[in-house]
Specification:
Helix content is 17%, strand content 16%. With 348 residues, the chain is of the alpha+beta class. Strands 12-11-9-13 form a four-stranded mixed sheet, covered by helices on one side. The longest helix is centred in the first third of the chain and has 11 residues. The radius of gyration is 19 Å and the shape is globular. The two termini are 37 Å apart. The relative contact order is 0.21.
């Protein structure tokens, strides 16, 4: 994804937002199998003070100004929620993700720009956005060149109906919306991390370093994260050993013993996205909860949540979301082949 999302992708995300099938009622924490916690042990992140945002010239406008944030200690999943963990949640609850639900024509029309044509029946089928590499160089400002809305693509079928997750049990779950991630977190007795918590944890105790591992560029030396190597979106040299998602814990953990805080898949946070938020923050804050309301000047009609960390699609040529200060935005209903999540828990 890039910051100026095309209208076509916005329409596709609006289609996801229009899903109306009710989801299963979620049980309480007592229903969580003990094995789930063993699959992804939480790490204690010690409270402290840090400078949130970009302090150099590598950031995007919404990463400035850097400001002082103090956080209380909290717990964070050691790695992104995997297919195995999400499967246990679905088995216990019968939950149906947004990407698996049929789309309501009335809700879809309400989500589209005024004057939009009425959708045909095929546009109301369930589905999600799948990455399709191009045959050669394309305009990187046009995300429709490599994103395709595939009917019946979902967390169990990441590439569409002909695919499955056999052998991918230890890969991060994808095609999950913000609501899906929230439902899982509630079931597990957890929550989504705030954007401040996420960045603080990603830094791993390293002050001022642009990456979770320090200052060395990800393309230099030993592979440090699952990102795009080569020319995006048509040539991936797989220098890091992977084309798409990788098993969690495939790369060295950061200073807090957290894995994949850079690359692999983007991760949902709890916060609304507001491009002006850093500029409106006090010089010093304690446990900030993010913007009170969403604001995206590129697409003000569609509220968005913050996602963090970059993905296997990030490269020097495109996105560079693997920096610890990099912010991205997407609609809460979005389902993407490179978007997952991890959970946090407060210390009471």
């Amino acid at each position: 994804m890039i910051r100026n999302q095309s209208s076509t992708i916005i329409v596709l995300c609006a289609m996801l937002a229009a899903c109306q099938q009710p989801v299963a009622k979620q049980p309480g924490r007592a229903a969580v199998p003990p094995a789930v916690d063993k699959l992804n042990p939480m790490v204690l992140i010690p409270g402290g003070t840090f400078r949130m945002g970009a302090d150099d010239d590598s950031g995007m406008p919404d990463e400035y100004p850097a400001h002082t944030v103090t956080l209380d200690s909290f717990y964070l999943d050691a790695h992104e929620v995997t297919n195995a963990e999400f499967a246990a949640f679905v088995a216990a609850t019968g939950y149906v993700t947004v990407a698996e639900r049929p789309i309501s024509k009335e809700e879809l029309m309400a989500s589209l720009p005024p004057g939009a044509e009425e959708p045909d029946s095929t546009m109301l089928l369930p589905g999600s956005l799948v990455f399709v590499p191009t045959k050669g160089p394309v305009d990187l400002r046009d995300v429709t060149q490599w994103w395709s809305f595939e009917h019946y693509a979902d967390w169990k079928h990441p590439k569409g109906p002909g695919s499955d997750i056999k052998g991918l049990e230890n890969h991060p779950v994808v095609h999950v919306s913000w609501d899906d991630a929230q439902a899982y977190a509630k079931w597990a007795g957890k929550r989504l991390p705030t954007e401040a918590e996420w960045e603080y944890a990603a830094r791993g105790g390293k002050s001022g370093a642009p990456y979770p591992w320090g200052t060395e560029a990800p393309q230099t030396g030993k592979p440090k994260a699952n990102i795009w190597n080569g020319h995006f979106p048509y040539e991936n040299t797989e220098t890091d050993g992977f084309y798409g998602t990788s098993p969690v814990k495939s790369f060295q953990a950061n200073g807090y013993q957290l894995f994949d805080m850079s690359g692999n898949v983007w991760e949902w946070t709890a916060d609304w996205y507001d491009a002006r938020h850093y500029a409106s923050e006090p010089a010093e804050t304690h446990n900030p909860m993010g913007a009170n309301a969403p604001h995206d000047p590129d697409d003000p009609a569609n509220p968005k949540r913050v996602i963090r960390g970059g993905s296997f699609m990030c490269s020097d040529e495109y996105c560079r979301g693997y920096r610890v200060t990099a912010r991205m935005k997407t609609t809460p209903s979005s389902g993407l082949e490179n978007l997952g999540f991890r959970c946090a828990r407060s210390i009471r």
